[in-house]
Amino acid sequence: MRRTTQPIEPVRKQRQVPIPPERAFELFTAGMGRWWPLSTHSIAAADATGVRFEGRVGGQIVELTADGTEHLWAVVTTWDPPHRLVLSWHPTIEPEAASTVEVRFLPVEGGTRVELEHRDFEELGEVGPVARENYDPGWEPVLDRLLTRAEAST
Amino acid sequence: MNEPAAAGPQLAALADPTRRRIFELVAAAPSTVRAVTDQVSVSQPAVSQHLKVLRDAGLVVGTPRGASTVYRADRAGLEPIRAWLDSLWDDALDAFVDAAQAQRDHDPQREDQP
User: Fold this and answer.
1) What is the pTM (predicted TM-score) of this model?
2) Residue B114: inside a domain, yes or no?
3) Which one, out of A140, A151, B67, B99, has a CA that is 20 to 30 A from the CA of B13?
């Protein structure tokens, strides 16, 4: 097997927070504009003013900016409060080439464990088996997003 | 932005859509310059130049085969980008934890709920 066909390992993270799943889920989603580090992790950087998170399947996550321009970050594909959330993360260039972010909220003693996985391959299955076979998809949607941000930072 | 410093050369190399397309092609199948040129709408010298940029960024390696060179993607070159993504989520989730902590601290009457 060619080395280049091996997928990049998904990014997996977890954190524990001292609030119950219902509130953790709400803060993560509807409250995203209150905690997301916009000044460093956004398209408009210093001009970013907030995040609109539409909590429903098909809802959008949109970065709001000072001049009224909106930047689409993601679309909600699974909405299962307060347990699980899946996002199709597709910034700008090629909406069909989205990576996937899944967030799970697990009740634990004293609060909630939040598990996040950012993976980049499976959703491209929608493009079809031919594309999947001829295409090494893993990095590209990630790159599109990172490039958007890197360009915004210059 | 959080400076993706370590990933800078790779991000810069892939910022050009044609170059990204060329990278896709050699990632899908190791290819010669000629084979790549057949699949993109730029000249063979332009393809060679794009491949040079990708090679300099560590994203592509070339192996001589007879009179030509076969290029393939070097996945190791993508690792800085993944590492940057990894740090991005660390930053975001740390901020989320801080916000959750603050919410509990400022809303103690709900803390006692089971």
Assistant:
1) 0.68
2) no
3) B67
List chain A pLDDT tens, one digit each, 154 residues: 333 344 567 889 999 999 999 999 999 999 999 999 888 777 777 888 999 999 999 999 999 999 998 888 889 999 999 999 999 876 443 444 467 899 999 999 999 999 999 876 433 323 322 233 333 334 444 455 545 544 554 4
Question: ipTM, 2 decimals?
Answer: 0.74
Q: Does B90 touch chain A (CB under 8 A)?
A: yes
Number of residue pairs across A and B with CB atoms under 8 Å? 121
- How far is it, in rounded angstroms, from Cα A9 to Cα A98? 16
Q: Which of B1, B29, B104 sits opposite A40 (nearest CB)?
A: B1
- How is residue A69 written in tokens? 């321009």
A11-153: CATH architecture:
2-Layer Sandwich (3.30)
